[in-house]
Design a protein that fits this description.
By secondary structure, this protein is of the alpha/beta class. About 30% of the residues lie in helices and about 15% in strands. A hairpin with a 6-residue loop joins strand 8 and strand 9. Helix 1 crosses helix 5 and helix 8 packs parallel to helix 9. The protein is globular and about 60 Å long. Bound molecules: threonylcarbamoyladenylate (TXA) and magnesium ion.
């Protein structure tokens, strides 16, 4: 099927209240008409996502945000002008007509304009904002290819649009504008450094709350089936003798040690490339049914922040 035809069909499904998996520059999303609570409910069902975890609305034009929110503070406007289309999500006070199921009852809404031609055409042809989380079962790694979606949610979605592998590979950066100062809720595809260069200092300490405002921030999230260990040293490797171990290496590993499999995120040590390869590399290791995956740390700057955030959540034992 030609892309244009597939997109037309997908838009028809969205307008009719169905759900469609579609590519974005970050990860694949599972979308429904953001104004149709029943359609959105199906997303929660298929993902087995708890209803307290709100979704992002995807728009095809920066001007569309105005219809979704009460007001746009000037720093949010700056972010939008600078990074859209692109991997930044802004959280703002929502307009009344946005269904509660989308925002999990919160007075705020997360909005972004993805940088992917298929996603943008789909939103335009659907003639509505598309509510979409990442197209994975809740708590598991986000999909960065159509094949990943097929493997995990295949028969439960009405259509999967294939736009090739995602170029960014980690989810969008989420910035909230509900308090006086912009607050980073999730590090992602646009680095904190880039965001601060556009709007000045951003609060990075999480707000203390009874329930998480971004369950992407739940400590165990993005987890494969195989246990991942992040804190280890070459010396401690002896204690894993006899077990089948994979290595998730940042750059080409210097170690001569015997791993059953090694995945290198970026031979030249480029954090952007490493982010783009992260989820696929973990999936490949996970598919080998090893006893353990040892992950190397990456420098915690630029895209390294998003990578370390996802790795920590993949390794964390608790909720
Ligand atoms: O790159 C992305 O953002 C991808 C693609 C598909 O656009 N989407 C994505 O969606 O990662 P999801 O649902 O997996 O993660 C969205 C995060 C969740 O952790 C959710 O809690 C948070 O956004 N979120 C949504 N609405 C919010 C709100 N009103 N306030 C705070 N956090 C919110
Ligand atoms: Mg997700």
């Amino acid at each position: 099927m030609k892309d244009a035809e597939a997109i037309r069909q997908a838009a028809g499904i969205i307008r009719a209240g169905g759900i469609v998996a579609f590519p974005t520059e970050t990860v694949y999303g599972l979308g429904a008409n953001g104004y149709n609570p029943l359609a959105v409910a199906r997303i929660f069902e298929v993902k087995r996502r708890p209803s307290f975890d709100p979704l992002i609305l995807h728009v095809a034009d920066p001007a569309d945000v105005r219809k979704l929110v009460k007001e746009i503070p000037s720093s949010a406007k700056k972010l939008i002008e600078r990074f859209w289309p692109g991997p930044v999500t802004v959280v703002l006070l929502k307009e009344e007509n946005i269904p509660d199921i989308v925002t999990a009852g919160l007075p705020s809404i997360a909005v972004r304009m993805p940088d992917h031609p298929m996603a943008l055409s789909l939103i335009k042809e659907s003639k509505c904002p598309i509510a979409a989380p990442s197209a994975n079962p809740f708590g598991y790694l986000s999909p960065t290819t159509a094949e990943h979606v097929r493997e995990q949610l295949g028969d439960q979605v009405d259509l999967i649009l294939d736009g090739g592998p995602c170029t960014v590979g980690v989810e969008s950066t989420i910035v909230s504008f509900l308090d006086g100062k912009p607050r980073l809720l999730r590090p992602g595809g646009v680095s904190l450094e880039e965001i601060e260069s556009a709007i000045g200092e951003v609060e990075i300490r999480p707000v203390k709350e009874d329930r998480p405002s971004a369950p992407g921030m739940l400590s165990r999230h993005y987890a494969p089936r195989t246990p991942i260990v992040l804190d280890w040293s070459e010396k401690s490797l002896d204690s894993y003798k006899g077990r089948r171990i994979g290595l998730l290496a940042f750059r080409k590993p210097g170690m001569s040690l015997k791993f059953n499999h090694i995945e290198v995120l970026s031979k030249k040590g480029d954090l952007r490339e490493a982010a783009a390869n992260l989820f696929t590399a973990i999936r490949r290791l996970d598919d080998l049914r090893l006893d353990l995956i040892l992950a190397e740390s990456v420098p915690e700057v630029e895209l390294g922040r998003a990578i370390m955030d996802r790795l920590r959540r993949a390794t964390s034992k608790g909720e």
